[in-house]
Amino acid sequence: MRIVTAGSSHYAYHKTINLTVANAKRFGYDVTVYDLGGLGFGEVVDDRRCFSPIRQPKFSLKPELAHRASIHYGGTVAWIDGDAVLIRSIDDIDQDNSFDIGVTVRPKANKKKTHYINAGVFFVKFNSRARSFMSHWIDSILPAPEDLTIKHQGFCDQETLEEKILLPAIQKPLWDHIGKVFDVHGARVKLFDCARYNNFWLHEQWLPPEKNTKILHFKNHQMKKLGPYVEAFLR
């Protein structure tokens, strides 16, 4: 299995990514790191979207980079955002042959507006169904405008995946179907629990991860806001 992640000079990406890399190697996983600008290590991404001062254009690169890594290296790819940390083994993902694409779903208590999923973590198997799905996801994202300071959800990876691809194919609410597999554009898409594979419930003070949490997601604003709590965990 290969862990794929990316980051830039913003916030403390170098700290979370280095911890993910160290843990991935400890668990026996290969790692690919993409530098989206100023990270200082990894494979530099040559794309004008990396120079955007806002997040959406950079986020739209995620499915492209995961797709690239899947085609180049094969096997199972686990995309983990640069502000998330792999803290426990995810061998079960690699050994699970019931799906081609895995997405993480928020529980009901954390539904944000219309967003059922959090695309900070997703899983891609190396097969033709997954490749076709990833190509469809990439093609469904609107091209970034010439003015990269403009905010528009249409060129954001998460909203495109949820609103254009998943919701037309899976009955709402998605949290009622965690653990199930659906046929979406010819691929077997499995819904995984955010609490276990993409746990982002950090608020005003440090909360230790649940014992079954495998990936902890600080999220951009929390990396800056939590300060000493994050530092304590990363040391």
What's the overall geometry?
Answer: globular
Mean pLDDT: 86
In order across it, which strands form the biggest sheet?
Answer: 3-2-1-4-7-6-9-8
What is the number of helices?
Answer: 9
CATH architecture: Alpha-Beta Complex
Elements, N to C (H/E): EHEEHHEEHEEHHEEHEHH
Q: N-to-C terminal Cα separation, in Å? A: 26 Å
* Helical content (DSSP H or I, runs of 4+): 25-40%
Q: What composes the largest sheet?
A: 8 strands, mixed
What would you note in describing this structure?
The protein contains nine helices and ten strands. It is an alpha/beta fold and 235 residues long. The chain has one domain: Spore Coat Polysaccharide Biosynthesis Protein SpsA, Chain A. Strands 3-2-1-4-7-6-9-8 form an eight-stranded mixed sheet, with helices on both faces. It is globular and about 40 Å long. The chain starts with a strand and ends with a helix.
Q: Main traits of this protein?
A:
9 helices; Spore Coat Polysaccharide Biosynthesis Protein SpsA, Chain A; eight-stranded mixed beta sheet; 235 residues; two-stranded antiparallel sheet; alpha/beta
Concise summary:
The chain is of the alpha/beta class. It is about 35% helix and about 20% strand.
Fold topology:
Layout: E1 2-7, H1 13-27, E2 30-35, E3 43-44, H2 55-59, H3 62-73, E4 77-80, E5 84-86, H4 91-95, E6 101-105, E7 117-124, H5 128-140, H6 157-166, E8 181-184, E9 187-193, H7 194-197, E10 215-217, H8 220-226, H9 228-234
Parallel strand pairs: 1-2, 1-4, 2-3, 6-9
Antiparallel strand pairs: 4-7, 5-10, 6-7, 8-9
Helix pairs in contact: 3-5
